[in-house]
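Lecture 7 notes: from sequence to structure.
We start with the chain below.
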Amino acid sequence: MSSDRSVTADGCPVDVYAELPAAGEPEWIHAVVPAGASILDLGAGVGRIADPLCAVGHRVVAVDDSAEMLARVARAETVESRIETLRLDERFDVVLLASHLVNTADDDLRAGLLATVRSHLAPDGVALLEWHEPDWFDRLAVGPHPTGRIGPVSATLDVAAFDGDLLDASVTYELDGRRWTQPFTARRLTQPDLDRVLAQAGMERVAPNEPRSDWIVARPISCNGGS
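Predicted structure tokens for the same chain:
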């Protein structure tokens, strides 16, 4: 891993993330949430999603535990905090949890992330959660999987091993002749698994919004008359 550039505590190279373009997420989110919605972006990084949402009229609060990442956010309000310990007084129309954080291998961390999502949702709000679908895991084999260029960045996913529903892998990014390798472990969640952890956090999944099946739309259970 390159040591001459800032890398966050969880291994994210800030320079690379600053160059990665959004992949249609801001446009999709803008289309499925109310106009002028208040949005809490958890794990916002450099504002890849938050800033474009601000540009189309939403008020966005971007949360990340990396001051270096938040320094790149241009439009959104920023709060430096770990997601699972965030305690804001405000409730939001929309809460985002992107970057496949729900697929963390740590079940306790997942519960903490979803608890933060739920506690910051307005009673009639919606949560938008990005996840790796089960089919994504099923298509992978041990070895390298070049993903091509993402803007100016080239990336390769290298699968090291499968252990039950856990995937051990790394992503290697290349930018301007520099290279960073970011290891990660992800848990394969089925739709029933996801429904169960959402229910434990006081939320329920609603009908999917095509074509973004890689995002889950959820709402507080209390909105549907549940307990």
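Points to note: The longest helix spans residues 107-119. The mean pLDDT is 91.
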